[in-house]
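To close the chapter, one final illustration. This time we ask the reader to focus less on the individual chains and more on the assembly as a whole: which components sit near each other, and how the overall shape emerges from the parts.
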Amino acid sequence: MQENFPTQKLLKWYQKNKKMLPWRVDKDPYHVWISEIMLQQTRIEAVKSYYLRFMEKLPTIEDLANVSIDELFKLWEGLGYYNRARNLKKAAMMIMDKYHGEFPRKEEEILSLPGIGEYTLGAIGSICFSLKVVAIDGNVLRVYSRVYLNYDPIDDIKVKRKIEKHLLELLPKESGDFNQALMELGENICLPKGSPKCEICPLANICQAYSKNKMLEVPIKAKKTNKKIEQYTIFIFNVQEEYAIEKRKSKGILGDLWQFPNVEGTLSKIEVEELFDKESVVNIQELFPYQHVFTHRVWQVQVYFVSLKKKIASSYQWINKTMLLNDYAIPSAFKKIVDWILEN
Ligand code: SF4
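The assembled structure is written out below.
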């Protein structure tokens, strides 16, 4: 273990360089919690406007507990991973019921809330309650791997545990600032691609990767995830100024969110024409194919515009462009379709 870790230098660097972010104006656990969940998979700059809008509409845990799922999804639209939004509401309801609306302070209580894993516990626990917990995200793993020239795969749970143990030993009483300093260093200085800015890094004097010029050799990942390919044909059903959407099933990916009607597989224009009675259709247009990549799957989509004489299927909701833009949470997997409708 490195004995001479420059903790004070890192903390001073953080005080001087930390970004002024809307969720850093205080240490309110509600603010830190919402921002941390939004920041998973999304960059800081992109999260700011989502966070401000969320807090304007739902300023308290009680507001979050009482919000309708449709309104919550609309606030979340564009961030993806809608299960996270669903868990936020569940956790807020639990805080209202079990902790009288006050965010719990103990490790095991925080961890028992839906959607809160070790990383989020680390962030909330250290920033808001000065608990002795670490918050290890991809940025921290990269900084660590470079400082200690660690060639062990960072996606191996045993390796992660080892790193966690080591960082816990280094953790000062200012645990929140220490955790945030490492994350911010990874975000802005110890960059993942291209050259890290070692000449201005507060850890440069102990960094083994820097001293050996091996910064781009680490971190290492063991697994490559093989994503499942799924193919769909999606229809933009249109009657006069209205378009059909429908709710997805509750279970499974994008559960309970709105989508455009679709079938599995990639249909040719002739196959699509065969689906409809000629009398009911005004016009069928083959639009564009596109691909949407999720964490564990890829959707390959072909889109058709189908203008109809009258509305079909009672399960569809028929909405105009204004409603599409303002009232319904349509996941980003369908964004290209929404954009096409709004532009045409
Ligand atoms: S010296 Fe360079 S490689 Fe090492 S932690 Fe700092 S930025 Fe990263």
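Residues 143, 146-147, 189-190, 196-198, 201, 203-204, 207, 209-210, 215 surround iron/sulfur cluster (CB under 6 Å). The chain has two domains: 7-136+153-190, 228-343. With these observations in hand, you are ready for the problems at the end of the chapter.
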